[in-house]
Write a structure and sequence with these properties.
By secondary structure, this protein is of the alpha/beta class. It has 4 domains: 3-117, Response regulator (Rossmann fold, 3-Layer(aba) Sandwich), CATH 3.40.50.2300; 123-131 and 309-401, Helicase, Ruva Protein, domain 3, CATH 1.10.8.60; 161-300, 3-Layer(aba) Sandwich (Rossmann fold), CATH 3.40.50; 407-452, Homeodomain-like (Arc Repressor Mutant, subunit A), CATH 1.10.10. It has helices spanning 11-23, 34-40, 59-69, 84-92, 105-117, 123-129, 143-156, 172-181, 200-208, 225-228, 244-256, 282-287, 293-299, 316-326, 336-344, 350-364, 377-381, 386-401, 407-426, 431-438, 442-452; strands spanning 3-7, 27-31, 45-51, 75-79, 97-100, 162-165, 190-194, 209-210, 222-223, 233-237, 258-259, 268-269, 273-278, 302-305. Helix 11 (244-256) crosses helix 13 and helix 14 packs across helix 16. The longest helix is centred in the C-terminal third of the chain and has 20 residues, at 407-426. The radius of gyration is 31 Å and the shape is elongated. The two termini are 52 Å apart. The structure holds adenosine-5'-triphosphate (ATP) and magnesium ion (MG). Magnesium ion binds at residues 172-173, 237.
Length: 461
């Protein structure tokens, strides 16, 4: 049974809410002041309905207290009619919604339903939580990823050199490992080498080894990673950063599997498969003369491009379920609104960025479900300021309740209503002043006011 805490100094409002809530089978606890309301807050409380004008501590201060104590708890604020500023202030301070006095019971009931629903769990994520493993831990059921799986399946059966491309965080290393793990080389080593992180002078010896005395500090001979990986797979990550002497040696290796250690003359050979990856445009590097064209063709025998996450957003719920499971949060719930925010975002950092966001949210949400406020702020703000965030929150809410196929009109009306109420308030109720300010004629303004149930205090002018 949902527990709702109602804080208002007007007994009639408390009474009306109690009737409403008990009729719905909820439990109502009422308090006449913010201080007593904060006192009455319990771990069972699911929702707070809070008047902003209270004796003693005012509602906005109380709102912030509630947010500190229980950041995930939805709070509905009751404001006086026409005090738009307070309503906006409340939304900015994290109120879930506001309703205005005099209270319209149907409106209040709808707000309560929405606030309680907000804790609703995303069925989609939960469904995926029950599912088993995917190919090599790679999640993806969108057509774009199905293509990738098909290609992985085909190259696994061969020893062909593979070039993986895709933006940062799209899963290139994961795919390289899956190719190895499903190939006949699975029981032999998988040797990842990051070509960008090794100093230029060391990369050749790292890859191909060196003989004793090959350079200062080469006190003894050392086999390279190609030799260590014998029978297995060498993963050349960030291969676009390979310096040109190493490019020449790699080309030779790809031609006949032979190489020499640095400082050595003996022809060695190694049975390894090469999988390379880059998030740079190798063709452009070739055009600029920074990369050998012949090497490009030798590497690009099988080209596999990983799609960015924004091009396969349908995979997001499944990925979220996977990351919760991987981080020891298998049973963790995700609210519908949080999933909406995760799906709306563009993910420039791709799956890696999503993984970090989910893991962080799992920590911040502690025992409760993941809610929008547990996600990185950039997801809600999309690069805009707090005003835009407040507006976006309102829009999202209105959109959610708008009838299918008529959202434009429904949402626009809500904005218009706010705008007109604001203009009337500023014009102290004067219709002519408000219509001048808005640049719409009085008849139109009057018609809209009628439709929205707005009154002006001085109809005379
Ligand atoms: N399809 C996927 N399913 C599950 N996890 C994924 C998927 N793609 C990427 N990841 C996860 O996202 C993170 C980044 O993946 P990975 O390191 O393979 O990306 P990358 O393409 O190599 O990135 P970079 O170019 O920055 O090196 C890893 O934690 C990986 O497990
Ligand atoms: Mg990588």
């Amino acid at each position: 049974m949902p527990h709702v805490l109602v804080i208002d100094d007007e007994p009639s409002i408390c009474w009306a809410f109690r009737q409403l809530l008990e009729r719905k089978g909820h439990r109502a606890v009422v308090a006449p002041t913010a201080e007593e309301g904060l006192e009455a807050l319990s771990p069972e409380t699911d929702l707070v309905v809070l008047d902003v004008r209270l004796p003693g501590m005012d509602g906005l201060t109380a709102l912030r207290r509630f947010r500190e104590k229980r950041p995930e708890l939805p709070v509905i604020v009751i404001t006086a009619h026409g005090t738009m500023q307070t309503a906006v202030e409340a939304i900015k301070s994290g109120a879930f919604e506001y309703i205005t006095k005099p209270i319209d019971l149907a409106e209040a009931e709808a707000a309560v339903d929405r606030a309680l629903e907000r804790r609703a769990v995303s069925e989609e994520v939960r469904r995926h939580q029950a599912e088993g493993a995917d190919l090599g831990g790679i999640v993806g059921s969108t057509p774009a990823m199905q293509e990738v799986f098909k290609k992985i399946g085909a190259v696994c059966l061969t020893d062909a050199t593979v070039l993986l491309t895709g933006e940062s965080g799209t899963g290139k290393e994961l795919v390289a490992r899956a190719i190895h793990a499903n190939s006949r080389r699975a029981k032999k080593p998988f040797e990842p080498i990051n070509c960008a992180s090794l100093p230029e002078g060391l990369i050749e010896s790292e890859l191909f080894g060196h003989e004793k005395g090959a350079f200062t500090g080469a006190l003894r001979a050392k086999p390279g990673r190609f030799e260590v990986a014998a029978g297995g797979t060498v993963f050349l990550d960030e291969v676009g950063d390979l310096p040109s002497p190493a490019q020449a040696k790699l080309l030779r290796f790809l031609e006949d599997h032979s190489f020499t250690r640095v400082g050595g003359t003996e022809q060695l050979s190694a049975d390894v498969r090469i999988v390379a990856a880059t998030n740079r445009d190798l063709r452009a590097l070739v055009a600029d003369g920074a990369w050998r064209e012949d090497l490009f063709y030798r590497l690009n025998v099988v080209a596999l491009t990983l799609p960015p996450l924004r091009a396969r957003k349908a995979d997001i719920p499944r990925l979220v379920a996977r990351f919760l499971q991987d981080s020891g949060n298998s049973g963790k719930q995700v609210s519908e609104m949080a999933l909406t925010a995760l799906t709306a975002y563009d993910w420039p950092g791709n799956v890696r960025e999503l993984r970090n966001a989910v893991e962080q949210a799992a920590v911040l949400s502690r025992g409760g479900p993941i809610l929008p406020e547990h996600l990185p702020p950039r997801l809600a703000q999309r690069g805009s300021g707090p005003d835009d965030a407040a507006a976006a929150t309102l829009i999202q809410r209105w959109l959610a309740e708008a009838p299918e196929g008529a959202a434009w009109e429904a949402v626009s009306e809500k904005w218009e209503r706010l705008l007109i109420a604001r203009a009337l308030e500023d014009a102290k109720g004067s219709l002519s002043a408000a219509s001048r300010r808005l640049g719409i004629n009085r008849a139109t303004l009057r018609k809209k006011m009628e439709r929205f149930g707005l009154r002006s205090s001085s109809e005379s002018d």
